[in-house]
Design goal:
mainly alpha, about 0% strand
């Protein structure tokens, strides 16, 4: 019996291990990060259908607006295993990225039989700055998990065409379904199946091969559509821009994503609006690049259909987020294109090797330098997800005109008690929106919107969603008012809050906080309006109950305190005051039950002692 003399740790295997280790090490800075943005709802469970059963993951929307059951299920598994420890959620994200890197190396070897190309592709993907939002951010798992399934789909297709083993076809079709159930954007990859017949198929009648080999993928797409319709979520609604505006957005978006992958920098890694690309030059450059992408794909198809197939994958991922059709939320996000990252890594690596082998060898340094930049930029970007202050502050620095993100930074600073800095950013944001300080006349803001359509258009262009301009600005002014209140500038705070509820009279937070600035019946009216907007608003119910308690209307106070204890965020003082009122009404047993509930929470100890003594200890 002949024993192989080849050592286990060959250069090839060591190369793979090195790339996989690097794919993990560059994300070490995010491992100690706290929940950021959507992460709180994910860890709490509310963003994954409640987080109590597996069934909820598949029946309820992910993050309230999307049908992405496998994302919910992955987070539910994390909750079951790890509780709410953020580090372990980060760990899962990084392991998913490492797994996608390993599969990509396998895919490139299967598609091209070139180990050097495979290692270089894996390296480029492992440190790709365009993956930072998908990996370092807990909520970015949507994209990193989808990328894993997309690579698995591609691998299955390539292997099936090479050996015609039905297991590979089953894996590929199932991976497409999994990718769609992770992110709807993956549905466009249905077109990869027929294209693979020309790129990797060996029989002469490729049209027939393309047709019948696409059937399993069509079935998976139909299954996904059926599931989506059965559990119809409440998606965001896009704005309705003109054709010229769509063309301009396409140009700017193309510039943004090309920079992100081929010339990464802090601005492209932290842009959530297109304001950094406001110049017409960016639009022209982007449209030229978009035309170049299409032309390049056609030329590549004639020279290397295998590489062209990867280019098609990247193009298909780009088109749904290109703003060629209206986007239903933020116009751009660094994580949105990351699903196409594996294909872009393969194309970059192939280009690098081709240049190195040609007379333009020195040009091969360009993509190589891009990869080296990724080694530095990726851990730096991952470190920005340490906390909400760090993340939103970084976005405010590199994309200061992003209404939603900078407004979140304002809120974060206010929560941390840094009210002066929060006020500075809030004022700067409003100065940008209104291109001046006319907004300081709070009563005149609604008239400003009617008199200056540019403000409304700017907000729509920046935000992307069809949420009314008034609704968006109402939140900005309400948050501004709360900061002023924290600084004891009560009169200005009241004016800002009034402005907010005038712009959007369905804003429960605005009415509630305005009521807290007022007294007597005027305050009570605001609390009533808040409850009309949301009957489960515990704070408004409690405040209105306290108003009736002062008026000695015990029955009405009891009713409202009960409502407060059954609201979305019940708190100890509501149980304590309910116990006090019920004692006065002679309901001693009920009072003692609610006192016991109050004792399990943080309440005023003197008040607790007084109620306990009145109930006989």
């Amino acid at each position: 019996m002949r024993v192989s003399q080849e050592p286990f740790f060959t250069r090839w295997r060591l190369g793979i291990l090195g790339v996989l280790l690097l794919s993990i090490l560059v994300y070490v800075p995010c491992m100690t990060g706290l929940p950021v943005w959507d992460d709180k709802g994910i860890l709490h469970g509310s963003a994954i259908g409640g987080g109590k059963t597996w069934a909820q993951c598949f029946e309820e929307p992910f993050n309230y607006h999307y049908y992405r059951p496998l994302v919910s299920a992955s987070f539910f598994l994390d909750r079951t295993l790890f509780g709410t420890a953020p580090m372990l959620y980060h760990q899962t994200n990084v392991l998913i990225h490492a797994a996608a890197t390993a599969l990509l190396i396998w895919l490139v070897v299967a598609a091209f039989g070139n180990r050097r190309l495979a290692l270089l592709s894996g390296l480029f993907f492992a440190v790709q700055p365009g993956q930072v939002g998908a990996v370092a951010w807990i909520g970015g798992r949507t994209d990193s998990l989808c990328a894993l399934f997309v690579v698995a789909m591609a691998l299955g297709l390539v292997k099936w065409h090479q050996g015609r083993h039905l297991g590979w076809m089953a894996l590929s079709a199932a991976s497409l379904l999994a990718a769609m159930m992770t992110k709807e954007q993956a549905a466009v990859l249905l077109l990869l199946a027929p294209a693979a017949a020309w790129a990797f198929g060996k029989q002469p009648d490729r049209l027939r091969l393309a047709a019948w080999s696409s059937v399993p993928f069509g079935v998976m797409a139909a299954v996904f559509v059926g599931l989506w319709l059965a559990h119809y979520p409440d998606p965001f609604k896009a704005t309705s821009p003109t054709v010229l505006e769509l063309i301009a957005r396409l140009g700017k978006t193309t510039s943004h994503y090309v920079l992100l992958f081929f010339a990464p920098n802090p601005w492209s890694m932290h842009s959530f609006s297109l304001e950094n690309y406001a110049s017409p030059l960016w639009t022209a450059l982007g449209l030229g690049l978009f035309a170049g992408l299409i032309f390049g794909f056609v030329r590549l198809w004639k020279q290397s259909r295998e590489l062209a197939w990867f280019a098609l994958l990247a193009l298909l991922i780009f088109l749904p987020v290109s703003n060629a059709v209206p986007m239903p939320s933020l116009l751009v996000g660094p994580y949105r294109i990351s699903v196409g990252g594996p294909a872009i890594a393969v194309l970059s690596a192939a280009g690098c090797l081709w240049l190195w082998a040609s007379k333009w060898r020195s040009l091969a340094l360009v993509p190589a330098l891009g990869a080296l930049a990724g080694v530095a930029l990726t851990p730096w970007g991952a470190a920005q997800f340490q906390s909400e202050k760090q993340f939103f502050g970084t976005v405010a620095k590199y994309d200061p005109d992003s209404i939603i993100l900078r407004s979140n930074y304002v809120v974060t600073l206010a929560v941390l008690g840094e009210s002066k800095e929060a006020l500075e950013h809030s004022e700067a944001l409003l100065q940008t929106v209104f291109a001046g300080d006319e907004w300081l006349d709070y009563k005149n803001v609604p008239a400003l919107l009617d008199a200056n359509p540019k403000v409304r258009k700017w907000v729509e262009q920046n935000q992307g969603t069809r949420a009314a301009t008034e609704e968006i600005l109402a939140n900005v002014f309400i948050r501004h008012g709360l900061i002023l209140s924290n600084l004891d500038r009560v009169e200005e705070a009241t004016q800002a809050l009034r402005c907010g509820v005038t712009l959007d009279n369905t804003n429960e937070a605005g009415w509630f906080n305005l009521g807290k600035q007022l007294q007597g019946e005027e305050a009570a009216q605001c609390f009533r309006r808040a409850l009309a907007c949301n009957t489960k608003h515990s704070g408004a119910a409690y405040a209105l109950g306290s108003h009736f308690l002062q008026k000695n209307d015990l029955r009405q106070a009891e009713k409202l305190f009960v409502q407060a204890t059954r609201g979305s965020e019940p708190f100890g003082d509501a149980f304590l005051d309910l116990a006090q009122v019920q004692y006065k009404l002679g309901q001693v047993t009920a009072a003692r039950q609610n006192l016991a509930k109050a004792e399990r929470t943080i309440v005023d100890p003197e008040k607790l002692r007084a109620v306990r003594e009145s109930l006989g200890g």
